[in-house]
Specification:
Layout (H helix, E strand, L loop, with lengths): L3 H7 L19 H4 L10 E3 L6 H6 L5 E4 L2 H12 L1 H9 L5 H8 L8 H14 L28 H12 L2 E4 L2 H5 L7 E4 L22 H17 L2 E7 L2 H6 L4 E8 L11 E8 L5
Parallel strand pairs: 1-2, 1-4, 2-3, 4-5
Antiparallel strand pairs: 5-7, 6-7
Bound molecules: S-adenosylmethionine (SAM).
């Protein structure tokens, strides 16, 4: 009979799926992105990790992930350290409209680590469209998604994720600080909040800080610095003339992606997006 530790050691890490639903999540673009990765590299880094569709799919050990969303990174830390305790807590939670608003009303900073992480994934899975939205006071304010038969997560997925996260550097903060950790032949996949293509594409409201055009100009400078250091970089972004001129010295590919979260139904079709890299892509 194998011990819990042996069972954990046996878990194979390959093609994992995101634990949370995330605005701008890249699950639908995985098959487009994977052939564009460099053939070989040292460390993998995803500094705007969000739901981490590519990070989980690649499941590369010793990677670096970061995000400015404190609740998200706190959640990943609890998954890494206490997957079973977290699962047990989640199993005791009831999905209903009343419970949703009670749990949403709790202050994360007053909860213990496991309760705080459970609140995060509970709200993520039961809120309207998985949209992480906060008000000016950084309070999560997405309404209930009106589905009561939602499965929050399962134990196996938390254990797999925990195993991968144990070898991952998991940082809460600004992407610029994360990029400073990289050196020659590391590979970074940058998936920033997109530059809005219309006034309805309000995807930038992930945390209380928006990511506006000026932030994209700073990001393009960081992209240049990465190239100077010999770091391999690949970025996803919206199709936007302003971006084309910011990255005119790099490789740019146009791709079509289905957008999953939008506030107008006409925004759910396939839309043109950009993939930008500092190494040749086809
Ligand atoms: C497009 S989403 C990433 C989606 C992710 N690739 C996925 O598959 O789910 C962008 C992420 O960048 C984070 N973010 C926004 N501004 C940031 C900053 N200055 N530094 C680090 N992360 C930031 C947001 O919290 C959000 O999770």
């Amino acid at each position: 009979m194998k011990t819990e530790q042996q069972l954990f050691d046996d878990i194979s890490l390959k093609g994992l799926k995101p634990l949370v639903k995330w605005a701008g999540g890249k699950s639908a673009l995985i098959s487009t992105l994977k052939p564009l990765l460099p053939k070989s590299f040292n460390r993998y880094c995803e500094p705007f990790v969000g739901g981490g569709a590519l990070f989980w799919d690649l499941s590369i050990e010793n990677s670096i992930i970061s995000d400015s969303n404190e609740e998200l990174i706190h959640f990943y830390k609890v998954v890494r350290d206490y997957p079973e305790e977290l699962f047990n807590f989640i199993s005791s939670m009831v999905v209903s409209e009343d419970e949703y608003y009670r749990i949403r009303g709790l202050s994360p900073s007053l909860l213990d680590d496991i309760h705080r992480a459970a609140r995060f994934i509970y709200l993520n899975k039961t809120c309207y469209n998985g949209l992480y939205r906060v008000n000016r006071k950084n309070r999560f304010n997405t309404p209930f998604g009106k589905k009561e038969d939602v499965k929050i997560t399962d134990k196996e997925r938390l254990l797999e994720a925990s195993k991968l996260l144990k070898s991952t550097q998991n940082i809460c903060g600004n992407y610029i600080d994360t990029l400073k950790l990289l050196s020659k032949n590391d590979f970074v996949y940058l998936d920033p909040p997109y530059l809005a293509v219309s006034k309805y594409s309000d995807f930038n409201r992930y945390t209380k800080n928006f990511f506006v055009y000026e932030d994209h100009v700073v990001l393009s400078d960081e992209f240049r610095k990465l190239s100077d250091k010999g770091v391999l970089a690949l970025m996803s972004n919206s199709f936007n003339e302003n971006l084309l001129s910011l990255y005119e010295n790099f490789y740019i590919k146009e791709v079509y992606a289905s957008r999953q979260i939008n506030c107008i139904s006409s925004g759910r079709g396939k839309i043109k997006e950009l993939i930008i890299s500092n190494y040749p892509i086809e």
